[in-house]
């Protein structure tokens, strides 16, 4: 094998993460031909093809996947060493991608991640709020927050938090329909719900699971669309408290009688979990959840912010 060109690994990492030589060139601020040349040189040095070139981009081969895992381990060691030299957690650098459910990612995580980014200006944080599972084996994210506890033994899984869901409606809609005193009054309301046959996990709450006799007036696969429909006065929906509690015009309905709970799970691969930047955000999120337990459980209307945080804080 020819002398190994370590500089080419930087280009390999960029293409592997962006899944495109063009996007990698933008990230590295070089020409696409420069990226392709380095990747080709690395493949020659390795004596193996690292990517399959398709119309949708660069897909890692099995050899490329193994190389990526090893290179990321080296990257983690170098980052840790760099942090020790420069002063620890404040010098975290690189990119970190977090997958999450749509509502939790958009309404709860986004503002907290913005504050985390200000604490670590050397980091680029990418949030993927999606109404589907995040595939960690395909490197869609460094780690994810899911409704359902993954059963794959090779993954690192940790419970992040419990949260509560309740019926919410706008005050205008409640004024229209009159007093709601018990579950029997729910049958004649305009309900907003998920599309049952498009639920991506059994942990997603739907009316069919709770009161099968209720007929939804409006359905959407998006919890954000449901939330907007409720805010507009269209009807009533079961919403997570981390969404419903934060809107001043939304009112919980039968809060003392309806108690629906779910959990969020943090998941990562061992290699990604060992990265300093992943550990930093992982631990930061756990502190944020503890600080906001009342919002998550429908007992408060205002989020609490973790503006200053370090690895020794309790």
Automatic annotation (TrEMBL):
SUPFAM superfamilies: Periplasmic binding protein-like II, Winged helix' DNA-binding domain. One of its GO terms (biological process) is DNA-templated transcription. PROSITE patterns: HTH_LYSR. GO terms for molecular function: DNA-binding transcription factor activity; sequence-specific DNA binding. Pfam families: HTH_1 (PF00126), LysR_substrate (PF03466). It comes from the Bacteria. Residues 4-61 form the HTH lysR-type domain. InterPro entries: LysR-type_TF_proteobact-type, LysR_HTH_N, LysR_subst-bd, WH-like_DNA-bd_sf, WH_DNA-bd_sf. Keywords: DNA-binding, Transcription, Transcription regulation. Belongs to the LysR transcriptional regulatory family. This is LysR family transcriptional regulator. The lineage of its organism: Bacteria, Pseudomonadati, Pseudomonadota, Betaproteobacteria, Burkholderiales.
């Amino acid at each position: 094998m020819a002398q190994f060109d370590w500089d080419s690994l930087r280009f390999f990492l960029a293409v592997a993460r962006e899944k495109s030589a063009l996007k990698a060139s933008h990230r590295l601020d070089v020409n696409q031909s420069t990226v392709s040349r380095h990747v080709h040189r690395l493949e020659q040095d390795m004596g193996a093809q690292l990517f399959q070139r398709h119309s949708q981009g660069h897909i890692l081969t099995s050899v490329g996947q193994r190389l990526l895992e090893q290179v990321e381990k080296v990257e983690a060691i170098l980052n840790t060493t760099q942090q020790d030299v420069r002063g620890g957690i404040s010098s975290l650098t690189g990119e970190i991608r977090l997958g999450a459910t749509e509502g939790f990612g958009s309404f709860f995580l986004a503002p907290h991640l913005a504050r985390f980014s200000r604490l670590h200006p050397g980091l680029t944080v990418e949030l993927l709020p999606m109404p589907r599972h995040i595939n960690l084996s395909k490197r869609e994210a460094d780690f994810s927050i899911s409704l359902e506890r993954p059963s794959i033994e090779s993954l690192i899984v940790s419970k992040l938090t419990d949260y509560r869901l309740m019926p919410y409606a706008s005050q205008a809609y409640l004024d229209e329909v009159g007093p709601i005193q018990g579950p029997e009054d729910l049958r004649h309301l305009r309900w907003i719900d998920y599309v049952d046959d498009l639920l991506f996990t059994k942990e997603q709450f739907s009316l069919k699971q709770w009161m099968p006799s209720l007929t939804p007036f409006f359905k959407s696969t998006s919890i954000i669309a449901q939330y907007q429909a409720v805010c507009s006065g269209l009807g009533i929906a079961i919403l997570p408290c981390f969404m419903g509690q934060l809107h001043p015009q939304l009112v919980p309905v039968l809060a003392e009688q309806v108690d629906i709970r779910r959990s969020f799970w943090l998941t990562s691969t061992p290699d990604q979990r060992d990265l300093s930047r992943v550990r930093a955000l992982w631990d930061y999120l756990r502190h944020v959840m503890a600080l906001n337990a009342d919002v998550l459980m429908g007992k408060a209307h205002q989020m609490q912010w973790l503006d200053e945080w370090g690895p020794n804080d309790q």
